[in-house]
Predict the 3D structure of the following.
Amino acid sequence: MVKKIVLGATLLGMGSAVMAGPSEGDIEITFTNLGANFSSGNDETNLNAAARAGKFLWGSNHEIGVGALFAYESNDVETVDAVTGETETDTVSDETLGAGAFYRYNWATSELNKWWYAGVDLDIGDLEESGDTLWLHPHVGHKWMLTDEVSFDLNGGLNIDLDNSDTDPTLVAQWGITVFFK
């Protein structure tokens, strides 16, 4: 029985397309995390998310689009009263809203149900503050169609801080769900 389940799952994963990939003129909206970062612990909570909308141009290979970025951070900060010596804990939180644009080259055709892509995102991390907010994210990823309109998206790349040359690039993994409008 276990062999049949493994064989069936393998064939399903390798099977040819019942679901169709993108075509010229299709629009996609992707909901992702921004760097494998939802954590809660050590009195700290971080949440990073994005929604990006793109349009396939010149066939199913070239895609350009825009996005909205959201980040939330909450930390417990301890302070010591200089007079009494007592420790007080305050919760400090920060929310930021950003925007960005992207380009992707998809190795896709309308007959495929999974494909590789490479792209670059240029993001302004915080629309209200200047400095340390301009980020470049070159990446390579893969999409798997779950239905005709929905896919799972996984990519990895670098985040490069364009405002601060002292900051080293960081490796980032992102995943998300994409909804296609055909």
The first strand starts at residue 27 and ends at 41. Residues 6-18, 36-41 have pLDDT under 50 and may be disordered.
